[in-house]
Amino acid sequence: MTLTDIKTAPPTAWFGIVVIALYILVALFAPLIAPFGETEIVGMEFEPWGGAYPLGTDNLGRDVVSRLIWGTRNSLGIALATTALAFGAGATLGLLAAVTGGWVDQILSRLVDMLIAIPALLFALLLLSIYGTGIVNLVIVIAVIEATRVFRLARAVAMDVVVMDYVEAARLRGEGRGWLMRREILPNAAAPLIAEFGLRFCFVFLAISALSFLGLGIQPPTADLGSMVRDNAALITFGDITPLLPAAAIALLTVSINFVVDWVLHRASGLKD
């Protein structure tokens, strides 16, 4: 993808790129942007919008604007780390299964089928209830669950590549599995895998937010968009839209990433507008 491709991107893709860039800037410079500290109590609980607190305060008297900024930073960082771990493990095993075949492919595929058969949210709730709700456990549990989805796509894409003549020629030259995966298969499977990374990030981001809303995700006092919805949910009964702000932040990022992923897939497919 070149600079010319980006310049000719449709409005939806540009919207997604701008929004994603804003989220990244907020995450990177949160300590400089946030008016108050992440856990700093600055007033009474549920103070109205205006004055020193443009969006009011939460159930403990913390500034909502600051919590949104810190929550975006934490949610994005943890989701990105989880997605990278899931994608690295799932893609590597998927390519390995396609290149190796035989009993290795069968064992990995059946194990993945077994894990996918279990509802993801229930499985995550069960594992987190057993092993605890720390950030490390959260990342590992969600990464294992999401890696199964990445495995299936990576294996399916790689299976179409391993039958090509240039892969067979590399085998006859005596190239090893690692070389085949890195130099022959991965470059030719990059487009769908890159798109999958974006989509998988959305699923991970939503999963972390859902678990935090249920109390088994990122734990207080760490700011998180999902837990912010739960903490301020009581305001809904009074017609206050404050609980909807973190939910809107989650939805906006998810929609923006999907816009960009759709554009990337359209470019990779070679279809004309």
Automatic annotation (TrEMBL):
<feature type="transmembrane region" description="Helical">
    <location>
        <begin position="116"/>
        <end position="145"/>
    </location>
</feature>
<dbReference type="Pfam" id="PF00528">
    <property type="entry name" value="BPD_transp_1"/>
</dbReference>
<dbReference type="GO" id="GO:0055085">
    <property type="term" value="P:transmembrane transport"/>
</dbReference>
<dbReference type="InterPro" id="IPR000515">
    <property type="entry name" value="MetI-like"/>
</dbReference>
<feature type="domain" description="ABC transmembrane type-1">
    <location>
        <begin position="72"/>
        <end position="265"/>
    </location>
</feature>
<keyword id="KW-0813">Transport</keyword>
<feature type="transmembrane region" description="Helical">
    <location>
        <begin position="76"/>
        <end position="104"/>
    </location>
</feature>
<dbReference type="Pfam" id="PF12911">
    <property type="entry name" value="OppC_N"/>
</dbReference>
<feature type="transmembrane region" description="Helical">
    <location>
        <begin position="244"/>
        <end position="265"/>
    </location>
</feature>
<feature type="transmembrane region" description="Helical">
    <location>
        <begin position="197"/>
        <end position="218"/>
    </location>
</feature>
<keyword id="KW-1133">Transmembrane helix</keyword>
<dbReference type="GO" id="GO:0005886">
    <property type="term" value="C:plasma membrane"/>
</dbReference>
<dbReference type="InterPro" id="IPR050366">
    <property type="entry name" value="BP-dependent_transpt_permease"/>
</dbReference>
<dbReference type="InterPro" id="IPR025966">
    <property type="entry name" value="OppC_N"/>
</dbReference>
<comment type="similarity">
    <text>Belongs to the binding-protein-dependent transport system permease family.</text>
</comment>
<keyword id="KW-0812">Transmembrane</keyword>
<keyword id="KW-1003">Cell membrane</keyword>
<feature type="transmembrane region" description="Helical">
    <location>
        <begin position="12"/>
        <end position="34"/>
    </location>
</feature>
<dbReference type="InterPro" id="IPR035906">
    <property type="entry name" value="MetI-like_sf"/>
</dbReference>
<keyword id="KW-0472">Membrane</keyword>
<protein>
    <submittedName>
        <fullName>ABC transporter permease</fullName>
    </submittedName>
</protein>
